[in-house]
Amino acid sequence: MGIAWAMGSKATTEFIARGVLIDAGRVLMCRNIKHHYCYLPGGHIDFAEQASVALSREFKEETGLDSKIGPLVLTTEQCFHDGKRVHHELNTVFLVEQLGPTSTPPESVPSIEDHIEFVWIDLAELAETDVRPNEIKAWLMSGGQASPSQGPWLSGFEHNTTL
Fold it and tell me: Helical H runs in 28-84?
């Protein structure tokens, strides 16, 4: 891949805050209704917005529910082409300590947006589920353990690779 692959007027780095909420052996995921893949809930961090605040805002915008955001547990980096353009993402993943009015997560999480739905996925079924990005899927399947050499940083880039 050459550098021209990523160049163009829309070449930017996207900063995304995501939340991991695990309850009773299940993880809350956001599912793209049209394409059926899943990802941790969250969204883009606005300029000069604290990442944890962005995640709380995104939960409110997407579900209508208030949330309590816990500590940062993982950071990932990916570069991928979605068929239209190249994306370079940095994902900050926080624990979600509470979603909704009680400490017990709701069985059914509403979606205010018509292109997504929220689903609980059994951790044991993650291997058969299309979860993106792959680094977050692998981290979830490992029980939230990062390799000692990488710590809480996972990257989809090969070492010394340029686009």
Answer: 51-63
Q: What fold does the segment set 12-155 form as a domain?
A: Nucleoside Triphosphate Pyrophosphohydrolase (3.90.79)
Instruction: Give the pLDDT score at 1.
Output: 39
Q: Model-level pTM?
A: 0.84
d(CA 87, CA 141): 24
Q: Where do the structural domains in the chain lie, given as residue ranges?
A: 12-155
Q: What pLDDT is stored for residue 45 in this prediction?
A: 97
Question: Please, are residues 77 and 89 in contact by the beta-carbon 8 Å criterion?
Answer: yes
Tell me the sheet residues that pair with 18: 42, 93
| Statement: residue 6 has pLDDT above 50 | no
38: which 2 tokens? 């899943």
Average pLDDT over residues 137-155: 68
- Partners of 81 in the β-ladder: 86
Give the integer Cα–Cα distance in Å for 70 and 74: 12
Q: Give the CA count within 13 Å in the CB-facing half-sphere of 38.
A: 22
